[in-house]
Structures are given as structure tokens and as C-alpha cells.
Design a protein that fits this description.
This protein has about 350 residues and is α+β, with helices and mostly antiparallel strands. It folds into 3 domains: about 5-205, HUPs (Rossmann fold, 3-Layer(aba) Sandwich); about 220-275, SH3 type barrels (Roll), CATH 2.30.30; about 280-360, Elongation Factor Tu (Ef-tu), domain 3. The chain is about 25% helix and about 30% strand. It contains 8 helices and 19 strands. A 6-stranded antiparallel β-barrel has the order 14-17-16-15-18-19. Strands 4-2-1-5-8 form a 5-stranded parallel β-sheet, sandwiched between helices. Strand 18 and strand 19 (about 350-360) form a beta hairpin. Helix 1 packs across helix 7 (about 180-185) and helix 3 (about 75-95) packs antiparallel against helix 4. The radius of gyration is 22 Å and the shape is globular. The model has no long low-confidence stretch (mean pLDDT about 90).
Length: about 350
Amino acid sequence: MKTSPVAVVAMSGGVDSTVAAAMYVKKGYRVIGLTLQMTDFSAEDISAKSCCSASDSEKFSKIASILGIEHHFLSLGNDFEKYVLKPSEEAYSSGKTPNPCILCNKHIKFGKAVQNFMREHGASVYVTGHYAVIDKSLEGCPRLLRGSNLQKDQTYFLSALSREQLLFTEMPLGNIEKSEVRAAADCLGLPNAKQKDSQDACFTYSGETFPLTLARYFEKPLKPGFITAKDGKVLGRHPGIQKYTLGQRKGLGVALGKPGYVLEIDAENDKVVITDNPEDLNCSEFYAAEMNWLNFAESGEKACFVQTRYRQKPQRAIVSRLSDGRAKVMLEKPLAAVTPGQRLAVYSENELLAAGEIILL
């Protein structure tokens, strides 16, 4: 008797991953649902949301029963703290603005623990409900492509995944509209068919922003400092640099009588520099480090499209691959508030070619 291939499906409890699981049941796979528990949300003042919400075992049991699949929880609290929370806290404390979702995808959702789980259960493929496409038509050289619905495209958040991680992964929703996904869930009688998409940070104390939650979680009190103008004139005081990001306009803590913007965060001196001239934020050239070169020439430069934020319209640029592994980006038009710690994503039309952490020199 022929044995069915095994697929491990990452299940968050949302409609996307649930429909992805149903698709692989229909394909004839023995599907094993896997929900990652990132941390202990037993404390009343911690909100469990988004990708970390894994405490409702009854909900997952019901979904698994409807689909006729196995379901497991995998506790990754230590890894989540080590690879996502701690680096994010350190970034905020050094004046950067990190993207924790990208760290989480690389080290947790597609990380070694998940790969070990696949091996233990004899799985040949790892399936997720992300809106992206992995093209494996060239053997050993997977290509990460934007999905057909650019408003839902998630390649920016997946940009740290290695070729090896892409090779064992499939994302079947990349060319499917969200309305079709909800309709499929409704036909299956799934309880999450009309569930709203999550937009919130997955780890916060109630009523706090993510950087403030991290400071409290790691018991690192904010350090007050000065807010100054470009010329060094002291304009006021701030409660801690973690409350600020480059280009920020609201909540500066000083009254200028006109709009002001965060121009620089000087972590060494606990200083926030602001400007009333938005053109001061413009950047024409910057660098990125810790690059993930997926499908980019070994050296030289290339005309590409780049993004420095998730919802940003792709910008034309010349990207150079430097001998030390970094990327140099020369924008066709200046871009405001290119922020250290955020992600550079490099595209050729709809294919992600490379990505890395933005640094300013």
C-alpha cells in the first residue's frame, strides 16, 4: 500500500493557514498541523495576539477535527526570547528600529526547531499561509516572488529566509485572492472563515507599544535625555530613546509651533535631534549589512526596485554588491526617513533578489 506524503502546515489559527492545510489534505498529503507557542501568556497584563496566539487549544482541536488532521503545539519560548525579543530590545536601545517579524520568520517559524519537527515526523514539505510564491522550477535555486495580490504580498517579511529554507517550504495562497480563501473556509464550515486579519504586534503589555514592552520585559528602565535642534540647542527632555524612530512627527514631547520630525537618535549620548525641515530627512544613498543574497550577481551593480518599509511603493535604485558582503544603494529619487534597523528588500519586478539590515554611514 502506497504511503501518503507528509506535510507539516504552520497553523496560527487564522483562516489563511487553515485553508492551506485543507488544500494539502485535498492533494492527498497526511497533514500535520503545527502551532508555535512563542512565550507564556498566562500573565493577565500580557496580550497574546497575532502569530503568538496559541493558547486556545479548543479552537485548534475543532479545526483539526473538521479537517481530519493531526495537530501539535511546539513551545519555542526560549528561542523567541533569544532570537526575536532580545535582539529587538538591543536594537531599540541603540537607536535603531528593528523589524521583529522578519527575525521571527527566519529563526522561529522557519527555524531549526521546525525543521527538526519535520524530520521527526517524516515530512517532505512545510506549508504556510503566506501570500507569496516560491518558484522551484530551477533545481536547487528557489525564487521568492510576490503574490498576485500586491496589497497582500508578504515577501518583505520573508526576505531573510535562506535558499535552504525556501526549498523545503510551499506557500499555496500566493496567487489566490483573500475573498477566495474566505469562501473556501466558509464551504468547509471552518469557525475562522470570517475572522479578521491580525494587525497588531504579537507581544505587548496591555496599552503599551512594543519597544516599551521590551524594556519592561527585560527590566531595563528607559534613560531620559535631551531633545535638541540640529544646531545643538536644547528644546526639551525625552523619557527614553526607545519612544522614537527616524521621521517620527507625533508625540515628540516638545512644542515647536510648527511640525517637527525626528532627524537623528544619538544613543551614545541619549539625545534625540529634531528638525522642522522635512527635506532634512531625505536620503539618496545608504548601505545595508547582513545581506541575504538570494539571486543577485556575485559582484557588481544592478538597476533594481527597493523597499525600506513594508507598505512603501517600490523605488528605483542602483544596488551594488560590495566585496565585504554589504549592499550599497543609490536611489533614483531621494527617500525620506531611511531608518537604521529596518529592512532593505531588493526586487527585480516581482522577484526578491536580496535583503538586509539598513545602516547609515
